[in-house]
Backbone:
């Protein structure tokens, strides 16, 4: 109805763009069993915003969210949603730098909590792999049992995970075949994977007959499952820390159930964990070409969207190499 109402005012190319941008929101609703505008609430819009923010330019995000706001304003005009509902879509400042990430101290606190209280659980392994490998959500989700090489192969004795682009069976890589690569893991991570496989992995295949490395009772976890894991454990109260927002956990909407964890102001997305992991590598003097290869990100994109070191940090790291010249 909305698209049809716009046809007499806008060019066909603009209509096509609107349909494309809003189609992403329709897909999100379909994937999350939202069948009607009356089912929408602020949490749904917040989670959609976080989902869309992953791996795209800020201007693209602004464009998508702005189109959604305009659509919801129209929906208000016909009584499909309550007045003012469009204001629940928060559109970021297009000129602000995307700097949201998890820092290394916080990541270590979360991992230490999981190691102590939820060792070798799926959540523990998800958080560790996100942080230690810096891989994208889609890459982690696409891992199969056969992609895990605990003793290496004919070319190496070291453990690693092999990433494959498998679009035909639902697990593409962002950069397609070019994103396929082995990702080395430490002995500690290998031991964690082994313990997860022995004690907690559900022995099941997905809808395509593939044996996923990480599983639920219904097969391969969905994208939302991985996001919920990150939201849940990036709440300070979830890992034994005091609330930095002066909230009482028993009265906080973000602690009512795990589906509302994203409402905590401290939560970050899987992409923010990736950004933090990449920045952590750079701060520890891992050369950019190595970080670029390991995390499948071009040097230009790495500089623009991932490297969150300050100019002074970069200067001090350069000093370590240049003092003797």
Residues:
């Amino acid at each position: 109805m909305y698209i049809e109402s716009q046809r007499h005012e806008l060019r066909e190319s603009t209509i096509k763009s609107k349909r494309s941008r809003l189609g992403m929101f329709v897909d999100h609703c379909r994937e999350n069993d939202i069948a009607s505008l009356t089912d929408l609430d602020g949490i749904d819009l917040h989670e959609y915003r976080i989902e869309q923010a992953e791996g795209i330019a800020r201007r693209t995000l602004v464009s998508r969210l702005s189109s959604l706001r305009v659509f919801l304003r129209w929906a208000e005009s016909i009584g499909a949603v309550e007045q003012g509902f469009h204001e629940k879509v928060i559109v970021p400042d297009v000129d602000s730098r995307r700097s949201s990430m998890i820092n290394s101290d916080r990541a270590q606190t979360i991992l230490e909590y999981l190691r102590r209280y939820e060792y070798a659980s799926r959540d523990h392994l998800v958080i560790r792999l996100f942080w230690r490998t810096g891989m994208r959500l889609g890459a982690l989700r696409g891992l199969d049992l056969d992609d895990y090489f605990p003793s290496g192969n004919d070319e190496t004795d070291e453990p690693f995970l092999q990433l494959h682009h498998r679009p035909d069976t639902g697990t593409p890589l962002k950069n397609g075949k070019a994103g396929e690569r082995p990702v080395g893991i430490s002995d500690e991570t290998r031991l964690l994977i082994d313990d997860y496989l022995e004690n907690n992995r559900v022995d099941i295949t997905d809808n395509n007959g593939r044996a996923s490395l990480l599983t639920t009772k219904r097969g391969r976890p969905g994208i939302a499952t991985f996001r919920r894991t990150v939201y849940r454990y990036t709440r300070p109260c979830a890992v034994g820390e005091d609330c930095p927002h002066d909230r009482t956990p028993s009265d906080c909407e973000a602690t009512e159930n795990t589906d509302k964890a994203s409402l905590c102001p401290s939560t970050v997305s899987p992409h923010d964990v990736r950004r933090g992991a990449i920045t952590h590598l750079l701060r520890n003097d891992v050369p950019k070409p190595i970080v670029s290869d390991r995390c499948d990100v071009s040097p230009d994109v790495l500089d623009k969207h991932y490297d969150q070191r300050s100019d002074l940090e970069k200067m001090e790291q350069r000093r370590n190499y240049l003092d003797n010249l």
User: Anything to note?
Assistant: Residues 2-88 form a domain with the DNA polymerase; domain 1 fold (CATH 1.10.150.130). The chain has two domains: 2-88, 104-263. Confidence is low (pLDDT under 50) at residues 94-98. The chain is about 45% helix and 5% strand.
